[in-house]
Amino acid sequence: MCAYTALHLAAREGHNGIIDMLLDHGALNDGFCRWFYNCRSPRSLWQILVDPELDPWAHGHDHAGTRHGDWRSKTPLHIAICSSRIDTAKLLVSRGAGVARSFDVLSLPAHGALHQAATAGFTGLVQYILDTHPELPVDKPDENGLTAFYHAYANQRWDSTAPYSLVRGANINITSRIIGDDESLKTTPLGEACRLGRFEDAHELIDMGADVSFGILREATEEDDSELEDDFDSDTHISLLHVCSMDFSRDNDLYPRKPGVWHPVSSQRSSQSALIARLVTEGLSLNSQWGKTESAACRGTTLRYPMTRRSPSP
Whereabouts are the ANK repeats (predicted)? Predict the structure, then answer.
């Protein structure tokens, strides 16, 4: 059931005078509404591909389109940002709106106003939030372990919040985790961009100072110890050169062609060869091995281990 208030609606429409009046008369600035949803997914691009059924953006942006039901609650501040009401968002922040939480239960790190502003490319709002909340780290993770810079990169904010986040001290090489049924991966935005066929984005990240020495870390599991101990008995680092040499378009299980499900931008394919040449120029070894047996020169077309989709729950 919807529980939005007049303040939620005023924030969506940018009625700042009404907002001031409502707050002056005791309206709850951080009241939650279950009807509204994020303007963009708070989950990583890769994780969406692993288990798209958990994401409402894979189902036509239906606010109740997941098997978890209605799983987000939004404040007037979040609604203002999603509605591109920047002045309204600043007003709500100046009147005490919380910038670091989006859930109405559990005080956990959450996809807050800083992450949403970075996602939307609102540099001025990111600056305002950080300036008025000096205690808020620019790399504060959300509930998915993702930072404002990650969301700026994922939404290709190369001329706005991505470079500005770095100016404010964001870590371009910060890692995030991708969870599958029986495996766990860690990678940077650059590693993800390569694996998902976002080769132009990878160029942008390298231009901005991303470290090319880290690709993907596949963390060892108990299954590895019992079944794959000859080759994968410990954490396995997969070189960025290996990752960028794969044909991202052939793994149809990883990239389902369903309406509403994100898939690689085919126009970025032309940048793949130039990216590989650049990595070699940066000093990555042509003969670096993945595990104990495979070099970049003999890689097949798909990644054998970690890139499978999560099995649906019963």
Answer: 2-27, 72-99
Q: What is the DSSP letter of 211?
A: -
Q: What percent of the chain has pLDDT over 90?
A: 40
Neighbours of 29 (CB within 10 A): 18
Mean pLDDT over 288-292 rounds to 59
Question: pTM of the predicted model, to two decimals?
Answer: 0.80
Q: What is the pLDDT of residues 200-258, one digit of tens each?
A: 999 999 999 999 998 888 876 655 544 544 444 467 888 888 888 876 654 434 444 44
- Asked if 194 contacts 212 with a C-beta cutoff of 8 angstroms, the reply is no
- List residues bridging with 290 in a β-sheet: 294
Query: Does 247 fall in a domain?
Result: yes
Q: How many domains does the structure of the chain reveal?
A: 1
In a domain, residue 24? The reply is: no
b/e string for 92-127 if b means 16 or more Cβ within 10 A?
bbeeebbbbbbbeeeeebbbbbbbbbbbbbbbebbe
Q: Once rounded to an integer, what is the mean pLDDT over residues 111-115?
A: 88
Are 74 and 90 in contact by the 8 Å Cβ rule? The answer is: no
Q: Is residue 215 part of a domain?
A: yes
DSSP state of 253: T
